[in-house]
Structure to design on (155 residues):
């Protein structure tokens, strides 16, 4: 689901169930190298640097990617770290005016419910979001859903 809000911008929410152990799923997301595996190849996404060997509160991560052919640099910081239940990354440098991504992990009878909520705002506001960004984010998170299911198949 992607909604457009007023002053706060837009948000995207996604959930999926992974039939694996909570600690294993959280450990997968704690490894910065797995960001590349979850990102669509058309973005040419690469992790350039990570300030710590595994993700933790305060970790900064630098990336390189291409959006519609335009090369971009992105730096994020882990603002909150609560293993194995949640963490938040926030863009420090990148293409968005704001980008705050909440990752949640909740054990259920069916497996681990992996949740994503991204609150974001783009230069150009709602019009640019509607014409370009929203569609791209849906495609990126659709890819991420499929890729996660293949990387962590049912146990």
């Amino acid at each position: 689901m992607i909604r457009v809000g007023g002053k706060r911008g837009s948000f995207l929410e996604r959930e999926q169930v992974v039939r694996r152990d909570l600690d294993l799923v959280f450990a997968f997301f704690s490894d910065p190298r797995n960001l590349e595996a979850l990102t669509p190849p058309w973005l040419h996404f690469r992790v350039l640097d990570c300030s710590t060997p595994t993700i933790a509160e305060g970790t900064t991560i630098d990336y390189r990617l291409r959006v519609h052919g335009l090369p971009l640099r992105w730096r994020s910081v882990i603002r909150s770290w609560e293993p194995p239940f949640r963490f938040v990354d926030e863009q420090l440098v990148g293409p968005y005016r704001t980008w705050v991504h909440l990752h949640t992990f909740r054990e259920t009878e069916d497996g681990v419910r992996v949740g994503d909520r991204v609150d974001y705002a783009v230069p150009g506001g709602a019009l640019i979001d509607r014409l370009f960004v929203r569609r791209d984010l849906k495609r990126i998170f659709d890819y991420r859903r499929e890729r996660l299911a293949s990387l962590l198949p049912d146990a």
Notes: Residues 125-151 form the longest helix (27 residues). Confidence is low (pLDDT under 50) at residues 1-6.
